[in-house]
Amino acid sequence: MGLATAVDVLVTVVAAAAGVTLELSRPAGSTHLIAAPVWVYVAAQVAAAVLLLMRRRRPYTMVLMIAMISIVAPAWAALPAPFAVTAHGGEPRRRQWAVIAVLTVAFLAGAQAWTVADPFSAPLVILSSALLGLYVRARRNLARARSDLVAELTERAERAERERLLLAERARADERVRLAGEMHDVVTHRINLIVLQAGALRVSTADPAARAAAEEMRVAGCQALSELRDLVGVLRRGEDATDVAVEPGLARLVADSRAVGLPVRLVEDGDPAMVAPTVRRTLFRLVQESLTNVHKHAPGAGACVAVRYAADGVHATVSNTPRLRVPDPDLAGAGGGSGLDGLRRRVEVVGGTLTAGSTPDGGFAVSATLPIYVPTAARG
């Protein structure tokens, strides 16, 4: 038996005992509204008390039935009954007070309150019972609200912790992507230059030992590019992160390409200082990747890097003449695996556009238009 059931049984027993005692001790000659034998009044008191067992489940039904019994014999159970209505009854409040008013009138009519010296004592007890029920209900609602608030705050804290962990994981993933982009753009470019130099040494030298060493160097470089491509594939999530390193100028890229035998002409018009650092880094990567592609896919060709810095944006084109030799298959097949799609994504991140295709003379050209500053939408 639970605590609530035990309390209900105790209230029922007390109400029945009090009601029976009231009827048996009633002064001789006193009457109720409806005349009946004493045992009827006693039975009515017991029946009304038993109805208190319904006070939690059906408080309105309980009160109305006790009201009907009270017309026969003013039930002592009518005094604690309003407590059940206000403490356990549903909304609205008007219904609660209407039911309590019916009970009060029935009780007073059955007891013929107008014939007693103090006709207001019973209504005051009924009102006190109702107010006590309101107090208990308010305390219960307050405890429930406090519990709900604690649960909500706990859930918010857990959600904030999950979001923090998610943001941390996303930051780590973005860092991996950034590292993948750096490895593809920087390391691949350098290894390509080494492979080209080894290939040139193998063709130009007459020393068999030097030729064999150059071939070993070229093969090792191609193998390194292949392994690097696999590593970049593991790190890359699918989108390039924004670069943060400060890049050297385009002249350095052109000088590196010339050093390995690729004739490159650099034409710059305008002031690079007017361009935002993020856009300059994107431009650097664009030229770097384009020259790397010329090294791999157009051996013997000449190249031209033309950049114009204007108020409406940066206009860059990297073009090459037709190739003079068949590309090295190992070198052409190695790399980071992102190609022109990676370049296009990088350019679009800063709000630019990129086009690429063959030229009328059989060469190839990559052109891009970049904004001076990264637009707000592109930043988000």
TrEMBL record:
Q: What is its EC number?
A: 2.7.13.3
The lineage's top-level taxon is Bacteria
Question: Which Gene Ontology cellular component terms are annotated?
Answer: membrane
Which InterPro entries does the UniProt record give?
A: HATPase_C_sf, HATPase_dom, Sensor_HK_TwoCompSys, Sig_transdc_His_kin_sub3_dim/P
Give residue ranges for domain Histidine kinase/HSP90-like ATPase.
Answer: 280-372
What's the catalysed reaction? ATP + protein L-histidine = ADP + protein N-phospho-L-histidine
Which stretches are annotated as coiled coil? 143-170
Answer whether the UniProt record assigns the keyword Chaperone to this protein. no
- Which residues are listed as membrane-spanning? 6-24, 36-54, 60-85, 97-114, 120-138
Entry's CDD domains? HATPase_UhpB-NarQ-NarX-like
Q: What is this protein called?
A: histidine kinase
> Which species is this record about?
Actinoplanes italicus
Lineage from the top down?
Bacteria, Bacillati, Actinomycetota, Actinomycetes, Micromonosporales
